[in-house]
Amino acid sequence: MRRMExxxxxxxxxxxxxxxxxxxxxxxxxxxxxxxxxxIVADLKPGKAExxxxxxxxxxxxxxxxxxxxxxxxxxxxxxxxxxxxxxxMYQGIFDTDFDxxxxxxxxxxxxxxxxxxxxxxxxTDETGGHPPVPSPETLGRNGTYVVFRKLHQRVAxxxxxxxxSARSExxxxxxxxxxxxRWRSGAPLALCPFHDDPELGADPHRNNDxxxxxxxxxxxxxxxxxxxxxxxxxxxxxxxxRLHRMLRRGTVYGPELPPGxxxxxGVDRGLMFAFIGAHPGRQFEFAQSEWLNQxxxxxxxxxxxxxxxxxxxxGSYSIPKRPIADVRAHATLRQQIVERVTSAPxx
Length: 348
Prior knowledge:
Blueprint (H helix, E strand, L loop, with lengths): L35 E8 L5 H17 L9 E9 L4 E8 L3 H14 L33 E9 L1 H11 L3 H12 L17 H4 L24 H5 L16 E7 L16 E8 L3 H11 L24 E4 L8 E4 L5 E4 L7
Antiparallel strand pairs: 1-3, 2-3, 4-6, 4-9, 5-6, 7-8
């Protein structure tokens, strides 16, 4: 008797989904002759190729460490390809379950990686075992989330003058700036390179955010009051439960860079565009703003504020732990460096 092997096939997702049956989480896409599957081909944004490769590599490492990690998805086949000189991307998945089941299992896997999906997506269990509040009407919140968008003006010239007045050399200016931020100018974290900048590390989007603070409880590498340690304490010992205040955040600069060496403001608006995404704005974004950035009790450093993003007017001080302990230096804080800008719509 002749044996025949039937391999699973995939189908492309149609551009229009209006004619498709609606499932719990959206359109129910066509079933292939063997199972469910889909193929997505999309243009890749310039400069994103390495990040996309990184996602694939992390997935491959997760499967290597635990071959059953994706078992709930009932996958037959998963392909992740960059082509046409890294300008296009293809994702292809073939699985046994229908799309509703696939979505639910994917949410379960999200939770198993460390944070419950309900911390970011409305309608799912969060870290407390409950569910995020749903807006009215309910359809606004189904598989939705909340977004906070801020335009933050930065006083660059004033920050440079502060560094020059507080340091004894250009090298010390750079170190002081890094100790206030928690990163060097390249983006390299002090937690991984405490003594000097490492531009190669700073340019690596996978390594430059892969670090912890538990091995540095005193803050000899990254001061407890530095911006990145306040904005995300990670595994540091702090009052409260860090997991209840995690959030997705992204930022990008706006306006032209102030030329190197210029110490006087040129009147040009420049700064940061910031976006927060989460299902609990109150205990995520608002909590981090009021308690982590503008208080110090959770860190055990008293009534202090974030040296970069804190709402202060130059009063108070900022301490940098050093060895021996007698060498600890306290710097006077400067005026608030990040100011929210509100753009009004023109009147009719």
